[in-house]
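New here. Invent one.

***
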Amino acid sequence: QVQLVESGGGLVQAGGSLRLSCAASGSTSSIGRMSWYRQAPGKQRELVAVLTSGGSPNYADSVKGRFTIFGNAKNTVYLQMDGLKPEDTAVYFCNALGIGYYWGRGTQVTVSS
């Protein structure tokens, strides 16, 4: 089993920045990919950014050039969010793919206009 804990969410004005962190514990040796998803009220959960161990990051078109995912993709991943917009408001979830598919509980990001 893998446990994921996110941190770093909060309230920020449009144009501001936040950095989210995700720490994995447990059977992390199987993890080969870590990602960030988000879910806004009334909307489906969507992929924001993906980082694979030894691979290049990938981003949703809506965040390209503003968000940066980094980490070792084994037990730690971060999401640097710059140029935040009100439409980025959502609960952000960390995800890890190993033997199973694991989720954190999420951290709220609220961007005020």
Remarks:
- The mean pLDDT is 96.
